[in-house]
Write a structure and sequence with these properties.
The protein has 15 helices and 31 strands. By secondary structure, the protein is α+β, with helices and mostly antiparallel strands.
């Protein structure tokens, strides 16, 4: 038989709500971990007194009773799992797992039995319903009647708030059955009554949530916050965790108390109680107990008279009464040396503390995220500026938290911390060997940080080598691809034509424009060869000869399959690394053989390039002749349009037109006709560019 049994999606009934989680049964006892809060309930095998199997709304359920009267209920089992659980209880706990069905007759009278912290309403020997007395918030009595009021359940849409029991009178003298019923309920109910004196009182403490200054009265079973407007009574059983966090300014301290269920004020729920202390505040504290009582109750953790910093005294007293460890920041240190990171969550700025087993953000609103509930984290670019980045966390339940406006200098420290904690990073994807090894019932301390860093370093080296190889092998193409003056050349040429054309507008402007084109023309002339290069690269001929491989690449192509067969399952990264080692260890004679092959390949390439260049020059001449022919046709069409405009203007001249404008049109028409005659005589002159004709027209107007 297996030593452990594990069940997922099991529901534990706590104060009227069903909390899902995981259940593990082992030789040592029963462990249940709440998926929402991370709280772990541990029942020792020696404490188990009874086990009951019964049919419930969510399939089948298991009820465990302990020797000290506590009751634990777990629902969500399948009927087929009874035999397995029954055998396990017999073998490891020496208990019979009894089967008891609930009574469904529908009667509303029966017998009330009090067993431990449970009120059971029975008909005959079968229970109809059970009420955990810890759910009771108030108990009132009337004539032959007892009323039970319950704590409101925030997680449920509908909550049972009140139950009334009719208690018939009895003939026994001196015993009031109503009062006896009420006393049995109140002895186990979660009714907070401030009876007796407080152990100690801390006056006027600054509280961030709920906001204000409160007197904190420490009682044996609960904490009393007394403010000017509100009072809160917090049972120690509702305290989940305690945190002591140093402020970034190193002059203040946060003391955070995590609560489940939270304290309420109207519709507002406070899951965290946050106190702010100054490190300079000191206090002398005297407990309202004699030394024997202090020693007996706290076993040396507290003394009757204590003195020190205020935050130390509060945290020390709370740790002793709640009996929980205080969580402090781990070994994380930010860029400035602080143990926290300044950031913003939602609309407020605060501090994010990376802890050993989670993250906590203070203070508005406070957020605590455990590592075992994180699905992945993500480093995102800042939305407003590049001087900061965002840190995103998504939980396994799909909830997303975004901490924004983190300084860019904190990136390296936070990234290393996340790697060390084996959290999945969305930007890089899930790496092999990086699966989280958290125990489902407790956080794991195993660390795979070194292996992951080595893998990342290897990939970084390979990327650098590939970048160097591509830059060395590309030769002149790398220079051709970078032309910072390309756009400037285009602008300069456009400026030249515009400047020459606008020189006819006035004498003063023509003097300045005559100087500028001269300078620009010189720049364009120098950069013309560079401008033609990208055109040749953009239209790269697929028929051009390929560059020859180096000796190493020739050897690698020939040896790749052999390396794979010698090392089955080797990755591409490791294969490249192994090939480099083999090439380095190869003898000089063998390398010379591959050098000769590389030299032969280089000669063949040069020979092929010469033939390709000759063929390319012939193609270039044919394309030039074709281009000139097209330009002649375009020029001829333009001259015909000019002649038509001249004839129309001479027949009907426009009224009010100035003489200078007429002379300009007349001269430009002559120049166009003269250019046409010259074009017929010489083919080269006929291919003149349009800017040249505009210069002639400008000089004619002068």
């Amino acid at each position: 038989m297996a030593d452990t049994l594990e069940f997922n999606e099991i529901y534990q009934e706590v104060k009227g709500s069903m909390n899902d989680g995981r259940l593990r049964l082992s030789r040592q006892g029963v462990i249940f971990k709440n998926s929402k809060t991370g709280k772990v309930d541990n029942i020792q095998a020696s404490e188990l007194a009874e086990g009951v199997w019964r049919r419930v709304a969510l399939g089948h359920g298991l009820k465990l009773l302990t020797k000290n009267g506590h009751v634990y209920k777990y629902d969500g089992f399948r009927e087929s799992e009874f035999d397995k659980l029954s055998d396990f209880f017999k073998a490891h706990y020496c208990l019979e797992l009894a089967e008891k069905d609930l009574c469904v007759k529908g009667w509303n009278w029966g017998t009330v039995r009090f067993g431990g912290q449970l009120l059971s309403f029975d008909i005959g020997e079968q229970p109809v319903f059970e009420i955990p007395l810890s759910n009771v918030s108030q108990c009132t009595t009337g004539k032959n009647e007892v009323t039970l009021e319950f704590h409101q359940n925030d997680d449920a849409e509908v909550s049972l708030m009140e139950v009334r029991f009719y208690v018939p009178p009895t003939q026994e003298d001196g015993v009031d059955p109503v009062e006896a019923f009420a006393q049995n309920v109140l002895s186990k109910a979660d009714v907070i009554q401030a009876t007796g004196d407080a152990i100690c009182i801390f006056r006027e403490l600054q509280c961030l949530t709920p906001r204000g200054r409160y007197d904190i009265r420490i009682y044996p079973t609960f904490l009393h916050l007394h403010g000017k407007t509100f009072d809160y009574k917090i049972p120690y059983t509702t305290v989940l965790r305690l945190f002591l966090l140093p402020h970034k300014d190193q002059r203040q301290m946060f003391f955070v108390i995590s609560l489940d269920p939270p304290i309420k004020q109207g519709q507002t729920r406070y899951h965290f109680l946050i106190l702010l202390f100054s490190k300079d505040e000191d206090i002398s504290l005297t407990l309202n107990m004699n030394e024997e009582e202090v020693e007996k109750r706290f076993e040396g953790r507290l003394t009757k008279n204590m003195s020190g910093s205020l935050y130390e005294m509060v945290s020390r007293v709370m740790k002793a009464l709640v009996n929980r460890k205080i969580t402090v920041p781990g070994n994380f240190q930010g860029h400035s040396g602080a143990q926290c990171i300044t950031c913003s969550y939602k609309a407020s700025s605060g501090l994010l503390y990376p802890l050993e087993r989670g993250f906590i953000y203070v203070h508005k609103p406070p957020v605590h995220i455990r590592f075992d509930e994180i699905s992945f984290v993500n480093f995102a670019r800042g939305t407003t500026t590049t001087r900061s980045f965002d840190f995103e966390i998504e939980t396994k339940q799909g909830t997303q938290y975004t901490f924004s406006s983190i300084e860019r200098e904190e990136y390296g420290k936070l990234f290393d911390f996340v790697n060390a904690k084996k959290l999945n990073i969305k930007n890089r994807g899930l790496k092999e060997g990086m699966k989280q090894s958290y125990d489902e019932y407790a956080d794991s301390d195993e660390d795979q940080h070194d292996a992951y860093l080595e893998r990342m370093k290897e990939e970084g080296k390979i990327r650098e080598e590939n970048a160097n190889d591509s830059s060395d092998g590309s030769g002149e193409e790398t220079d051709e691809s970078f032309n910072p003056g390309e756009e400037d050349d285009d602008v300069a040429e456009e400026f030249d034509s515009n400047a020459s054309a606008s020189s006819s507008s006035g004498d003063g402007d023509s003097d300045r424009d005559d100087k500028k084109p001269a300078k620009k023309a010189k720049i364009v002339k120098d950069r013309k060869p560079r401008k033609k290069q990208p055109e040749s690269k953009k239209g790269k001929d697929p028929n051009a000869p390929k560059r020859p491989m180096s000796a190493y690449m020739l050897w690698l192509n020939a040896s790749r399959e052999k390396i794979k067969s010698d090392h089955p399952g080797i990755s591409i990264t490791d294969l490249s690394k192994k090939a480099g080692e083999l090439w380095k260890a190869m003898s000089k004679e063998k390398k010379e053989e591959w050098d000769r092959k590389a030299e032969d390949a280089r000669r063949d390439y040069e020979k092929a390039m010469k033939e390709y260049s000759k063929a390319d020059s012939h193609r270039g001449e044919r394309s030039k002749k074709k281009k000139k022919k097209q330009e002649k046709q375009v020029k001829g069409k333009g001259d015909k349009k000019g002649a038509a405009s001249k004839s129309s203007s001479s027949k009907s001249p426009a009224k009010g037109m100035s003489d200078s404008f007429k002379s300009k049109e007349f001269v430009s028409s002559d120049e166009s006709s003269s250019a046409e005659s010259k074009k017929e005589d010489s083919e080269d002159e006929g291919a003149a560019s349009p800017p040249a004709s505009s210069e002639d027209s400008a000089s004619g107007s002068d």
